[in-house]
Amino acid sequence: MSSDERLQNPLTDALVEAVLLLKNKEECYRFFEDIATVAEIKALAQRLEVAKMLQRNETYTAIAEVTGVSTATISRVKRCLNFGADGYQLILRRLKEQRIQKIDTNEGES
């Protein structure tokens, strides 16, 4: 069963569509503050950082120290990176492209 089949239903469709309507960082903060607990948001942020660090081949020990997550969470993120729905890979690639674009833009302004 793919992640779409497990996740997709009218309620999650509506959530995804709502997230896609957010236009900037401020709107995202406002929406996520209302829809999730601080702990839930921080957990999602930690998992994204774990994925970034795994992609840089950092050790579980270093990742746990920096993020505060358990090795079980690191293992889960690693499993998703390698065998998941490619959501982490997609966003990590786009974040990298965004960083490169910002560097190129800043160099062009010099």
UniProtKB/TrEMBL annotation:
<dbReference type="InterPro" id="IPR000831">
    <property type="entry name" value="Trp_repress"/>
</dbReference>
<dbReference type="InterPro" id="IPR013368">
    <property type="entry name" value="YecD_YerC"/>
</dbReference>
<protein>
    <submittedName>
        <fullName>YerC/YecD family TrpR-related protein</fullName>
    </submittedName>
</protein>
<dbReference type="Pfam" id="PF01371">
    <property type="entry name" value="Trp_repressor"/>
</dbReference>
<dbReference type="InterPro" id="IPR038116">
    <property type="entry name" value="TrpR-like_sf"/>
</dbReference>
<dbReference type="InterPro" id="IPR010921">
    <property type="entry name" value="Trp_repressor/repl_initiator"/>
</dbReference>
